[in-house]
Amino acid sequence: MMKAGLWFGCLWGLLLAASPQAVAISSLNMVYFDDFAPYSWRDEEGKMRGLMVDVMDRVGLELGVQVHHEGYPWLRAQKLVRAGQADGFVTVPTRERRAYTRVVEAPVAFSPLTLFTQTGHPALARLNQARALSDLKAFTILDYIGNGWGKENLVGFKVHLTSNVDNVFKLLAAGRGDLMITDPLVARFKLAQLGLAGTITEVPLQLELTPLHLCIANSSPFAARVDELTRILARLRQSGELARMEARYR
Length: 250
Fold this sequence. Notes:
Blueprint: H1 2-17, H2 20-25, E1 27-33, E2 35-36, E3 40-42, E4 48-49, H3 51-63, E5 66-72, H4 74-82, E6 88-91, H5 95-98, E7 101-103, E8 109-118, H6 124-128, E9 140-144, H7 148-153, E10 158-162, H8 165-173, E11 179-182, H9 184-194, E12 200-217, H10 226-238, H11 241-247
Parallel strand pairs: 1-5, 9-10, 9-11
Antiparallel strand pairs: 2-3, 3-4, 6-12, 7-12, 8-11, 8-12
Helix pairs in contact: 8-9
């Protein structure tokens, strides 16, 4: 009887170890905006690439887990984390996102936010004199659906939303709006990719230097390892390894 009980206990342990929940703990499933190069984008072969992907692969080595990378339209990616169908993403931890994730407080990267407008915009002199976001109330700002920073900070502004970052640049180049607010690293990469270099000008006003954080779904098994993730990212930042990764995209 004792032997039968022992055998059953061992069998049950093996079944638990083979369950989807146990397997999920050995892999970190990350989702990204698939059109936010050079931070995250889908290449010609359908593989996710970018600074965020590189950093998370390095974090996975420290954790001893495999990292899976999937890209989606940004709003859909966020919904997957909210629904517990992915472990996390790297982004600006807005109030809304903090409600369904645990934030790893050591940043993955820092994203400066500056202004871009059409080259030769009739109000360029006025834009160059802007000193704060509040100085832009008279202008139409182009933005993409799912941008949490814009949703949180552009309340009361004239905002025209479009489906993706490419469309924002194309509309701006065509004079269909006055401004966009984005990271210069993203702008340089996208303008070259779209063949729009020279049609869009950067306005020398840095609105913010925004930290991008790893956010883990409250329902993820990795939510219990947020402190460990914080230590890993802080150590990678202090050692200069994150800076070396960033330099490859500048």
